[in-house]
Design goal:
seven-stranded mixed beta sheet; 42% helix; 2 domains; binds pyridoxal-5'-phosphate; three-stranded antiparallel beta sheet
């Protein structure tokens, strides 16, 4: 009989999926990690024109079209004050593939990867798939990750640590001082910092800074995507940025696993990155209003809620049985333990949903809170 690899047996289908499947028809879905805005029209049009002109019928270069990588380079200059050569970037199939090739290219069997707990589900799974050992790092009371906790957890076996800011599932934003510290740790201990910046634009308080700005050597790779910034989750277009050597190694994985990112998506992404940026601010303003609405509602129920400063998630501490009671009443939220052991006792609520639905969902949550108290 064909056996399965030990690596794949260590991962399971995400707990988020299980919640969706448990929910009845007509449920309000606050479990989804995607903006409810349309993709900007100029991005859609760029893909249509590229398809109609036949430009998307063949493979692009492995790293992605020169024009897209130039747009990515310009984006880093504009938004992050970073000079990134188009050669030092690979266009990927979403941020997901960018994380995959970053971990695959840098983590040896048995090596450790430090990940936030609670943290985005892919970090643990991708580490296992690379044969590595995920090491969960607990978070501060405000749900940010303390650089000193990362520093303390580093051993001879540590290959990398993952920083995610603004974060899924917490909405927490690391301070510029923390980012400077993460860069120092990466330099000093010679470990790789994988900085997941897919929510970089969705910041309400504080500011997004990249550890890449502070690094002296080359121990940072940045993962980013059009998915959240331009409401393009279905297009599957992300990228990874790093030094020449690191890009060359990640390209080896990308070349064999993917060949190149989807060509139509590359044209759409180029237009999104280099066209008018208004949608980014509009979405952020709207998410901030929804954040305030949800935060007020949860606080009125008497729940303890660290104030999310970015992304579109909130992670209240909830009483035993709360998540089940909310789901039973027709609102999908995700149990905190889906994001790591220390997520237990929390729920992740995505508020990338219209205000009317959010208000309805808050009423349901208030009823569930009463019922389980
Ligand atoms: C923190 C984080 N990183 C990466 C991703 C992957 O994004 P993509 O849809 O571009 O693959 C997600 C998606 O939810 C995410 O929340």
């Amino acid at each position: 009989m064909t056996a399965f690899s030990e690596r794949v047996e260590q991962v399971s289908i995400s707990g988020i999926r299980e919640v969706f499947e448990a929910a009845g028809e007509g449920a309000i879905n606050l479990g989804l990690g995607q903006p409810d805005f349309p993709t900007p029209d100029h991005a859609r049009q760029a893909a249509i024109e590229a398809i109609e002109s036949g430009k998307t019928d063949g493979y692009t270069t492995n790293k992605g079209t020169r024009e897209l990588r130039a747009a990515i380079s310009d984006k880093h200059a504009r938004d992050n004050d970073l000079e990134i050569s188009p050669e030092n970037c690979i266009a990927t199939s979403g941020g997901s593939e960018a994380l995959h090739i970053a971990i695959e290219a840098h983590v040896d069997s048995g090596q450790e990867v430090l990940i936030p707990d609670p943290g985005f589900v892919s970090y643990e799974a991708l580490t296992h798939l690379a044969g590595g050992e995920p090491v969960p790092i607990g978070l501060r009371g405000d749900l940010t990750m303390a650089p000193e906790d990362v520093e303390r957890a580093i051993t001879e076996d540590t290959a990398a640590f993952v920083v995610c800011s603004p974060a899924n599932p917490t909405g927490a934003v690391q301070s510029p001082e923390d980012m400077r510290e993460f860069a120092r740790i990466a330099d000093e201990y010679d470990v790789l910092c994988i900085s997941d910046e897919v929510y970089e634009h969705i910041v309400f308080e504080g500011e997004h800074r990249s550890p890449m700005e502070f690094i002296e050597g080359d121990n940072v790779v940045v993962v980013n995507a059009c998915s959240k910034s331009y409401s393009m989750t279905g297009w599957r277009l992300g990228w990874v940025v790093g030094s020449e050597d690191r890009i060359e190694r990640m390209l080896r994985v990308h070349q064999y696993a993917q060949a190149c990112a989807s060509a139509p998506a590359q044209y759409a992404a180029e237009a999104a990155l280099s066209g008018p940026q208004g949608i980014v601010g509009e979405m952020t303003t709207s998410f901030e209003q929804r954040r305030d609405l949800v935060l007020d509602g949860l606080e009125e129920m008497g729940l303890d809620v660290p104030t999310p400063q970015g992304a579109f998630y909130v992670m209240p501490r909830v009483p035993e049985g709360w998540v089940e009671a909310v789901i039973d009443r027709g609102v999908i939220v995700v149990p905190g333990e889906a994001f790591g052991e220390r997520g237990a006792g929390h729920a992740r609520i995505s508020y990338a949903t219209g205000e009317a639905e959010l208000e309805e969902a808050l009423d349901v949550m208030a009823g569930a809170t009463e019922a389980v108290r």
